[in-house]
TrEMBL record:
PANTHER family: ATP PHOSPHORIBOSYLTRANSFERASE (PTHR21403:SF8), ATP PHOSPHORIBOSYLTRANSFERASE ATP-PRTASE (PTHR21403). Its main location: cytoplasm. The lineage of its organism: Bacteria, Pseudomonadati, Pseudomonadota, Alphaproteobacteria, Hyphomicrobiales. The keyword Cytoplasm applies. Signal peptide: none annotated. It comes from Methylobacterium aquaticum. This is ATP phosphoribosyltransferase.
Length: 328
């Protein structure tokens, strides 16, 4: 294949709404400062300190589309929008890592007044009944057309039709434009306010914002180099946030199986495994700190100190390896 024309890594970032602030903060923590290149309406930018990156500020739903088409290499958007927009998400993108924000659950919700309808099979009976008795199909208001079709097919419910709804979906049953809905919920407040309830087996997807890479994009030399810098900083921040460094002064004499002790406490020896005498440095998950410190004292440590770190860079980067592995 002819050598693809090289160009920048295109990074798509939410331009507005609830994901925008969290996404900017996420990159900021990783030392990746988003800078808009010109007027606020320009919706383009760059990453300070990382060459070869073009930032595009888009809506969360447009980001899913650009990752599917390959117009963007990397992006942040909700898993709900990825799975709704991409018929074969697994073959079109790599969900690199969930980001801990933008949580929302895609659910099937019916009127609370439907007291006997608690499950998808109950709903199937209502749907069949409506068709047989009234010659009408159950109407579902939703913006998640594909997610709805897949979920209802999995549950063998066919007697329905979809009424596309791009906002205020929860109001559809009360306004008579649909009987039930499929929509996202976070606190449940909007469902309750509209006298709707979630079916017991009506959770379609528990979604949160994800860092997503496109498999359809042209991963030529510059994007490959830039993505390693970007993912390197993201991993360094994540590793530092979730671990603590443990320093211990071991006695000059005595034998200690440091590697064995580290393994027992999910710890690693990032700066090498000295023979176990004098100062040693381990890194462990933040919730393993006390067990490790007590084990080191048991093994003869005179003093043990624990500290947080800002960034923990490493030669290997599982995110990069996973992505590059998908691209070959
Ligand atoms: N309570 C919520 N309501 C809506 N979106 C939520 C909620 N909680 C988290 N999200 C996430 O945010 C995404 C939508 O965010 P937002 O509405 O800011 O984007 P958007 O640009 O408006 O996208 P769209 O135009 O499709 O609504 C959702 O798809 C979901 O991933
Ligand atoms: O479970 P809750 O906490 O009540 O949140 C869920 C509601 O919030 C969102 O609406 P929003 O007002 O954000 O409009 P949008 O659909 O355009 O995002 C979403 O579409 C739901 O209607
Ligand atoms: Mg929205």
């Amino acid at each position: 294949m002819a050598n693809p024309v090289d160009g920048p890594l295109v990074l798509a970032v939410p331009s507005k709404g609830r994901l925008q602030e969290n996404a900017a903060a996420f990159f900021g923590r990783a030392g990746l400062t988003l800078a808009q290149t010109s007027g606020a309406r320009d919706y383009r930018g760059r990453l300070k300190g990382v060459d070869g990156v073009e930032v595009r500020f888009l809506s969360a739903s447009e980001i899913a589309g650009q990752l599917a088409s390959g117009a963007a290499h990397l992006g942040i958007t909700g898993e709900d929008l990825i799975r709704e927009t991409l018929p074969d998400a697994a073959g079109q993108v790599e969900l690199l890592t969930p980001l801990g924000f933008g949580q929302a659950t895609v659910v099937v919700a019916v009127p609370q007044a439907w007291i006997d309808v608690r499950s998808m099979s109950d709903l199937d009976e209502v749907a069949s009944d409506m068709r047989v008795r009234h010659g009408k199909r159950l109407r579902i208001a939703t913006k998640y057309v594909n997610l709805t079709r897949r979920f209802f097919a999995e549950h063998g419910v066919a007697d329905y039709r979809i009424v596309e709804s791009l906002g205020a979906t929860e109001g559809a049953p009360a306004s008579g434009s649909a009987e039930i809905i499929v929509d996202i919920t976070t606190t449940g407040a909007t469902l309750a306010a509209n006298a709707l309830k979630i079916l017991d087996d009506g959770v379609i997807l528990r979604s949160e914002a994800n860092l997503v890479a496109s498999l359809a994009a042209s991963w030529s030399e510059t994007p490959r180099r830039a993505v390693q810098a970007v993912l390197g900083r993201i991993s360094a921040e994540e590793r530092a946030r979730t671990t603590r460094e443990v320093r211990a002064g071991m006695p000059a004499s005595g034998e200690i199986d440091l590697a064995g002790l580290a393994a027992l406490h999910e710890a690693e020896l990032p700066y090498g495994a000295p023979e176990g005498r004098g100062e040693i440095m381990l890194r462990c998950p933040s919730d393993a700190v006390f067990g490790l410190a007590e084990a080191l004292v048991q093994a003869g440590a005179q003093a043990v100190s624990v500290r947080r770190i800002d960034y923990a860079f490493a030669a290997e980067n599982p995110l990069v390896e996973r992505l590059l592995g998908r691209l070959t």
